[in-house]
Amino acid sequence: MNTVFCSGCLKRGKEAYDLFEVLEKQIKKKGPTAKWELLLADVNKIDLNFNDECSETFTFEFDTKNAFSVICKIALEPGTDGQFEALFDMLYKAQKLFKEIKVSDDFGLAESYWKSKQYKFVFRELTEAEAERVKVFVRDGGKPHEEMLRSFMAEDMGMSLEAFKTYINPEIAMNSAMNSTEYPSICSSLESYLYETASFSGERLCEMDDFKYYDMGNVGFSVFAFTQGLAWIFLDGSGFSEQLSKEKKKTVTSQEAQIWQMYRDFFIPLYEASTEDTEKLMTVYRYFVSAYDFLGFRFEGIDENHKSFIDKLADKYSADKANILLTCYCTAYRYIYNNSSLKRNLYEENFENNLKNKYGEEFWQEYLNFAEEYRINMRMMQIVTYYSTTKAKYIQDALVL
Question: What is the pTM of this model?
Fold first, then answer.
């Protein structure tokens, strides 16, 4: 179940009946709204029943100043039978009656869909510089479009292609669920690329605080839509499939739904109609930059002065102390905090004794304070999960064995 919040105020001279008339015209006997029932309960109250045996009644009840506030649990999901979209289409079309109206929900889906009604994507042409980039790739013997996109992203990040292929920025490593088959491996590369080189609404992604970066319905959904949408065209085993498919996809957000429409209705027909390799590669790059632009990203390139989370730890504690503290934390996470085996208690005892013997009682207390301070820090958890599960850089087995 998803809780929807809707509030606002009718314009002067408008009444509940005016809203009732507008809403009623949008409820059809066929399609997503077939089971819906709209009632004018009294002069200041409108009830919308979804009749699905799960959702609550969506009730507009106006006070003496024509203001209202709705809190309603619904079982409607985007990308399924169209009812979720029908509800917010209905409200969007009625907004001319309101002096103000706001919509939101538990997962940011309502606000995301509402915003998507305000603009549409453009499957744009390449600029001269972008087209030349593709021509150079072809001239140098490049062919698979997956290799082309990786090459371009690697170049933008100042990395070699080989280094980029296995690179994941530790600060967003958990986002693409590294060990999950639900999110293809290319998603980590795509998000690392965005995180380090792009801005959104005038602020670099890598400089955003956690609250803003993971804002559901805004930055977070745009990042998700980009990584998912581009993963559809990586057919080399790193994406979702090994072939292009127009088979209907269940999309989670409105941004993803519109990228899906771009992919299905614009990209695939042009790609399949292309008879030359260069033409196909041009179409692939058009899809990349069109999705990038539509989702609100602006290319900034690598910021040489940017300080990573680990850099900031080094500034706070000194480089050597930060390295030791992070090594302790990652090692403890691997063997203790994230361990349910029978050896956990032994590891925990060894860890405390070894730290005290090696660094002293004062350092042990400093470590406990450090662990407590960063226990619920999202950036720290991303980094610790990354290094404790996939890398050995901040792991010292001797601390627990």
Answer: 0.73
